[in-house]
Every structure is written in C-alpha cells, then in structure tokens.
Amino acid sequence: MLIPHVKNETGRLRTLFLGIADDFGGTPDPEEVYDPKSLQHVLAGTFPTQEAVSHEMAQLEEVLGKYDITLLRPPNIPGVNQIFARDIGFVIDDKFVVPNIIANRHAEATGIQPLLERIPPEHILRVGNEVRIEGGDVMPWNEVIFVGYSEDEDFKKYKVSRTNKEGVAFLRDHFSHRTVHAFELVKSDTDPKNNALHLDCCFQPIGTGQAIIYRGGFKNSADVDFLVNYFGEENIIDIDQEEMYNMYANVFSISPEVIVSCRSFTRLNRELARRGFTVETVEYDEIAKMEGLLRCSTMPIIRD
To answer: Is 124 helix (H, G, I), strand (E, B) or coil?
Structure first.
C-alpha cells in the first residue's frame, strides 16, 4: 500500500515515479507532433535519438540514487514516449489526481496503472469529462496551489493549451482548504520561444521561499506582479526568453537545499550555488528538444 503525500514542490523527496526512455518511439512524423519545439527539431532533422535520451535519463537516475529515494517506474509501452511522467498524474496532499490529458498522450496514461493499484481508492481523485489538467501546470505550495491554464478562447485555439478553467475549478472544489492562484499562459502552436507549454516552463518555486520566473510566459502582467510580491523581488531568479526556451525553469528539487539542473545551464547553476543550493547537474539537452526537462520527467509521490 502506498499513501501519497506532497505538500509543496521542494519537501525532502522520499518516493518518486520516474519516467522511462526504454523505447520512446524515435522521430515522429510532423503531423504527429503536439508541441512547437519538438516540431522544430523534427523538421530540422535534430530530434533526439533513442541512444541520447536513454543516456540522459540514466544520468538522472544515477543522481537520484545518491539520495535514498524509492524509485518507481512505469512498464515499458513499445513505441510510446514515456519520459514525461509529470503530466499523467500528480499528488496534492494525500490525493493522487488522475487527470484528463491531451488525446495524443492517452497511451502514456496506461503506464501509471500499476502505481494506481498500490494506492487505496480513497486516495485517488479522477477528474470529470469536461476537466482538462496536466501535471506540468499544477504546483502545490504549502497553503496555495499555483496553476497555469487557458481561458476558452485559447484552449479551443491551441493544442498546447493543456489545462482549462474547468481544471482550475476542479482544484478549487477538491482542495478548498488551499487557495488556488490561476495564471493564464502565453501559447503558440508554432513558435517555441513564445509558448509556455506548462506553468513549469516559465515558473517554479525553489528552496523555502524563492522562485525562478520567466515573466514573458504570463499573459497578464498582474499575475507576474502577484508572484513577485508573493516571493519578494530579492527571492526571484529571472530568466530570459532564450533561457525559457532552453527550459531553465524546469529544474527539479530533491529537497529545499538540493536542486537537479541541466549541466549546460551555467548562469542559472552559478546563481543557485551563490544562493546556497547544492546543484546536481546532468546532461539533458537532447530531452529538452521535446519541450520538457527535469520536472517534466518526475512525479513525486511522497515528500516530507
């Protein structure tokens, strides 16, 4: 039996569901792609290879192995990209939320079935048919939940819009003891430098009260002002558009003190170290070509 427990993004990690890259399906046809960065690399002939993604995920697994974390993995589904585990399920408090995700990714969702069989039914929440959420848009942070979403106009227009207003309402209904702060994100199906695929592509809390932010990822400047006021200007690490494109916001916290980052993020890694964090680095630039990085690959099940 497994009882989920996640209060925030940085509590000491104990049990983690980690994606796999055993057989990720190789380069898709352009019409099969559902995010602009992947499409860019498909058309350029630079989409990652099986060897590259397997190598990079093995590095992440090695780092996690240093910290006494119980790792759970999905069964391999041949030809299905199962690297980005975050979106197909997430934990808030003692509830595992099974979301509705984009239709292109339904095959991935079967990979969490063995995990669900270990969690008591009273600790599982399944969303309704009208509700759309992906885990990359949802961040529990102590007394609040931060969520990225799209209003109807953008949700109907862009396939990169993954969380709708019904998803926000679901979180407010089922976690009424928390305050849900919802932020509209900038979306583009064609320009990866003007697309915040999920909230964790442009924002992430770190430590006990700091955050990484790309201000241009938010549709409304008032939302940026809210976050800066919430964390404090001195506790914000700003990243620029190019850094957002390279996924600088998508690092992963093992604890309030330890962050896993991409080795190529030299400016960010120096700044994190200057602020007192232990920074574990891995190569992850090939996986980043699919518009996901370290937070996307990880689904925390139990944190302190």
So the answer is: strand
The residues spanned by each domain of the chain are: 13-303
Fold of 13-303: L-arginine/glycine Amidinotransferase; Chain A (3.75.10)
Tell me the β-bridge partners of 212: 204, 237
Are residues 83 and 76 in contact, defined by beta-carbon separation less than 8 angstroms?
A: no
Q: What is the mean pLDDT of the chain?
A: 96
pLDDT digits (tens, 9 = 90+) for 165-216: 999 999 999 999 999 999 999 999 999 999 999 999 999 999 999 999 999 9
The distance between the two most distant Cα atoms of the chain, rounded to a whole number of Å, is 48
**How many C-beta atoms surround the C-beta of residue 292 within 10 A?**
28
Q: From CA 128, how far away is CA 227, in angstroms rounded?
A: 29
- Two structure tokens written together for 94: 């003692």
Residue 87 — very low, low, confident or very high, per pLDDT cuts 50/70/90? very high
pTM of the model: 0.96
Cβ-contact 161, 196 below 8 angstroms: no
- 131 phi and psi, to 5 degrees? -90, 130
Beta bridge partners of 164: 150
Beta strands in the chain (DSSP E): 13-18, 70-72, 90-92, 95-98, 124-126, 138-141, 144-149, 179-184, 203-206, 210-213, 236-238, 252-253, 258-262, 278-282, 298-303
Confidence grade of residue 289 (pLDDT, cut at 50, 70, 90)? very high
Residue 225: count other Cβ atoms within 10 Å of its Cβ. 12
